[in-house]
Automatic annotation (TrEMBL):
<dbReference type="GO" id="GO:0043240">
    <property type="term" value="C:Fanconi anaemia nuclear complex"/>
</dbReference>
<feature type="region of interest" description="Disordered">
    <location>
        <begin position="757"/>
        <end position="777"/>
    </location>
</feature>
<dbReference type="GO" id="GO:1990414">
    <property type="term" value="P:replication-born double-strand break repair via sister chromatid exchange"/>
</dbReference>
<dbReference type="GO" id="GO:0036297">
    <property type="term" value="P:interstrand cross-link repair"/>
</dbReference>
<dbReference type="InterPro" id="IPR033333">
    <property type="entry name" value="FANCB"/>
</dbReference>
<dbReference type="GO" id="GO:2000042">
    <property type="term" value="P:negative regulation of double-strand break repair via homologous recombination"/>
</dbReference>
<dbReference type="GO" id="GO:1905168">
    <property type="term" value="P:positive regulation of double-strand break repair via homologous recombination"/>
</dbReference>
<protein>
    <recommendedName>
        <fullName>Fanconi anemia group B protein</fullName>
    </recommendedName>
</protein>
Length: 837
């Protein structure tokens, strides 16, 4: 690794992390081409190499700031902030230039682009020097305080702006929502009666709000640093969770402006708070203190995890590229000629630990590899399963103890001559063995059947339900998690009640298959004294595909079924089963299972609870959601934005008026307005920061209206392409194309036939008006005029009822018949899809 020169080491290097790399910024003077010196801003990025346990240089660059020797250049602060124009997070660094007189201070904000170039974004002058805390937030926006006022500037602000509120104490922050992110909190004047005690000010729109929704009034004066964890607007009311470090050596967790939990910090003068997401092991709060101390606190319990001293800076990123975050602690160097990244520690306090230059503190453990992580997950699942089995064994032991106690009590009562009252065997979870020999033989037969391999496994039915959605009847079937059948061969059909004839009739339906998460089994409760990293692992890996339940639905038109006041239908499940005794490579056989019957009474129709209360988590709401997914048309749109990221598409969809999140499936958003319009379901799946798929379940008109409003929000460089449409839509397009082809063939064939007849008449060279001979007398003139008029009459009659060639007419009729046959086939397919849907 290259070393810093002695001149560079005298200037403090500012560092930040971005994309798993460390970036160092320094200001130095370089000799120019003309022999003079110029001040410049240089940067170098480093990546961590596991094998060498060191940071290696990746890229570097520089930007010229000033050519004057009398100008002193220095770095104020640097931080990664979101660039709202490019919609990406970029490193930003604020540099100041001041002359020897010190009359004015020139400030410049640079951003590091993806092409590793320092680009100037903001330049402004101040008659004073920034003192105290200077923040770089989204925009990038620079905020600072001066004489009880807050000033800020950004590329969109067009100069330095000032908040029209003055207070001696200010706290800056950023909300993780799209609109109104940047805010400043201050204390209200004592004489202001109409204002709240804590004033909040949004920089984007200049709106004043009640700051106590973020921090209570008593904590404004003692808050040293803070971070907003979550934020949302519910009925125009701000709901947020905030973590803050106070001057009273406390780390306080606030929810909606109320104190939720506190933790006593071991050091004073907190300067910054960062969050470390370690994945399955939970989250950590890392607090950096001005004297060079660092403290890590578990987020779930607010218990101190570890502390360090003599630290120059701390950074949070995925330095190892393993998918989770770690914290990098850079320790202060004793010598001036040493590299800043030569004495460090990378850890997540959950098994990952890399250190260098720590003397006796060697690396504790290596980060687990991918295979090790998979092994740990498998062992954890086996441990949870073993705990469940242990609970079942303990339950059986308790039952046996109760049976023994009852047996002793029965014997005692029999010897005493008292009447004995026995409890039912089913109440104790036992099987009676004295009810008869026939039942005993059945139990023995069942035991023998369990000892032999099962030839075929039938799916187990969990629930059968039905809904009336729009003008269709939807019948659904939910299978248990133990049912292992291939999804490709599963369908549901409906049969009518057998009437006068002995055979029931099959109802034309459209069947679909959905995956549902399995109901989580009863998990053991771990002790509260366990570490937080262990308590966060209480969930069982039931989200695996093997533990999911299968839901099958069938939809049919309701009007043809309502021939009477009550309708009864039988549900038949069709699936593919493969016997264990079959030969390898043999194809599975189809099987059918009667799942029960549904009775629909039109007088008992009710509204779907999903449309009324989508925020509840019940089986009825999940069934309503499946009904809507079955009935509504489905489109999938692929959105590609090569120039701008799509990170705010989800927020834009949720901000639309009327959209509500469905709690049973949070990935779906529901738009329901009372009236004739049908409900609308949306699901946004972001593939990467620049690509994503948008699933729309609605009518075609609603889809077009929503797509039109979304196109006005997306950048002009975005590409929107349909990936999937409904079957009825594809057949309708095919039918329309066939009809259009039929009309075009008929028009072109008749035109060619009539044009050919006119051409034939011209080739014959008949006498026309230009071939009238010059008359010699009045009688000849009248005769010639009469002949020309007679020819025109005959020609007009020929055009009205032309005589065409038989061979050409036969060819045209054959081609038109072929096109018409294709149109008839498309019409048949469209009719079938209409009847099914």
């Amino acid at each position: 690794m290259e070393k810093l020169s002695s001149e560079d080491s005298h200037r403090k290097a500012h560092s930040l992390s971005h994309g798993g790399k460390m970036v160092l910024f320094t200001c130095k003077r370089d000799p120019a081409v003309d022999g003079s010196e110029r001040s410049g801003l240089t940067f170098r990025s480093f990546y961590f190499e596991r094998e060498g346990n060191a940071f290696l240089k990746a890229t570097g660059g520089a930007a010229s700031i000033s050519r004057k020797l009398s100008v002193h250049v220095d770095i104020v602060t640097c931080k990664c902030a979101v660039d709202v124009q490019k919609r990406v997070k970029t490193p930003s660094i604020l540099v100041t230039k001041k002359s020897e007189k010190g009359a004015s201070f020139q400030y410049s904000l640079f951003t590091l682009s993806s092409s590793h170039q320092l680009e100037p974004r903001i330049e402004f002058k101040l008659p004073y020097q920034m003192k105290g805390k200077v923040c770089i937030l989204q925009g990038p926006t620079v905020l600072w305080s001066h004489h009880n006022s807050v000033l800020y500037t950004s590329p969109l602000a067009e100069g330095v702006r000032k908040i029209p509120i003055q207070t001696p104490r200010w706290v800056f922050g950023e909300l993780p929502i799209h609109k109104g992110q940047l805010f400043a909190l201050g204390l209200s004047e004592p004489l202001s009666i109409n204002q709240p005690p804590t004033i909040g000010y949004f920089l984007e729109d200049g709106q004043v709000f009640d700051g106590s929704l973020i921090l209570p009034h008593p904590y404004i004066c003692i808050t040293q640093c803070m971070q907003v964890l979550t934020a949302d607007r519910v009925d125009d009311v701000l709901r947020c969770a905030v973590i803050a470090a106070t001057s009273k050596q406390q780390l306080v967790l606030f929810e909606n402006g109320m104190v939720k939990d506190t933790c006593e910090l071991p050091f004073e003068q907190a300067e910054d708070i960062q969050t470390v997401d370690t994945g399955r092991n939970g989250c950590l709060f890392v607090v950096f203190f001005k004297p060079g101390h660092v403290c890590a606190v578990w987020k779930e319990t607010l218990q101190i995890a570890s502390c360090w001293s003599d630290v120059s800076s701390v950074h949070v990123d995925d330095f190892l590229g393993c998918g989770t975050e770690q914290m990098l602690l850079l320790f202060r160097n004793q010598g001036l000629s040493r590299e800043p990244l030569e004495k460090f520690l990378i850890t997540d306090l959950c098994g990952i630990s890399y250190s260098c230059g720590q003397g006796s503190e060697a690396p504790k453990t290596s980060p687990p590899q991918e295979n090790s992580l998979l092994t740990l997950q498998a062992l954890e699942s086996r441990l949870q399963s073993g705990l469940i089995v242990l609970q079942e064994l303990e339950r059986e032991v308790r039952v046996k103890d109760r049976v023994l106690q009852q047996s002793i009590q029965v014997l005692t009562e029999m010897l005493s001559g008292r009447e004995t009252v026995l409890s039912q065997p089913e109440q104790e979870g036992l099987v009676a063995l004295w009810d008869g020999d026939e039942e005993f033989n059945d139990e023995t037969l069942d035991d023998k059947m369990h000892e032999t391999p099962v030839l075929s496994s039938k799916p187990k039915i969990d629930k059968l339900w039905h809904r009336i959605t729009e003008d269709q009847l939807v019948v659904g079937l939910i299978l248990t998690a133990e049912s292992s059948i291939p999804v490709s061969g599963v369908s549901l059909s409906l049969l009518t009640e057998p009437g006068q004839s002995s055979m029931p009739e099959v109802i034309q339906t459209q069947s679909q298959v959905f995956w549902l998460p399995a109901r989580s089994p009863s998990t053991p409760t771990l002790s509260s004294s366990s570490p937080a990293a262990k308590r966060s692992k209480q969930h069982i890996a039931s989200n695996d595909l093997k533990a999911c339940r299968l839901a099958v639905t069938a939809a049919t038109k309701l009007a043809p079924l309502l021939t009477s006041g009550c309708v009864k239908c039988h549900a038949m499940l069709h699936y593919m089963e493969k016997s264990e005794t079959s030969f390898p490579g043999s194809s599975p056989t189809t099987a059918a299972l009667h799942c029960g019957e549904v009775s629909v009474d039109i007088r008992d129709l009710r509204q779907n609870p999903l449309l009324q209360t989508p925020h509840i988590k019940t089986d009825e709401v999940r069934e309503d959601l499946l009904s809507l997914l079955t009935v509504l048309d489905h489109w999938v749109l692929h959105i590609d934005s090569p120039d701008y990221s799509l990170g705010d598409i989800d927020d834009w969809i949720q901000r639309r008026q009327g959209f509500k999140k469905i709690e049973v499936s949070p990935e779906y958003l529901l738009l329901f307005s009372p009236g004739p319009s049908a409900p609308m379901l949306l699901r946004w799946n972001q593939i990467n920061p620049f690509q994503g798929n948008l699933s729309i379940h609605s009518s075609q008109l609603q889809m077009l209206q929503f797509l039109d409003s979304m196109l006005t929000y997306l950048p002009d460089s975005c590409f929107v392409q349909p990936v999937k449409c409904t079957r009825s839509q594809s057949t309708a397009q095919e039918f329309a194309s066939a009809l259009e082809k039929e009309v075009l063939s008929l028009r072109e064939g008749l035109s060619s036939l009539l044009c050919g007849k006119d051409e034939e008449e011209r080739n014959k060279g008949g006498t026309g008006q230009g071939e009238v001979p010059k008359p010699g007398s009045t009688e000849e003139l009248i005769r010639c005029t009469r002949e020309v008029w007679q020819q025109n009459v005959e020609r007009s009659r020929a055009r009205l009822s032309p005589l065409v060639d038989a061979g050409k007419y036969r060819e045209i009729i054959q081609s038109i018949s072929k096109v018409k046959m294709d149109a008839d086939l498309a019409a048949v397919r469209q009719t079938q899809m209409t009847l099914i849907s």
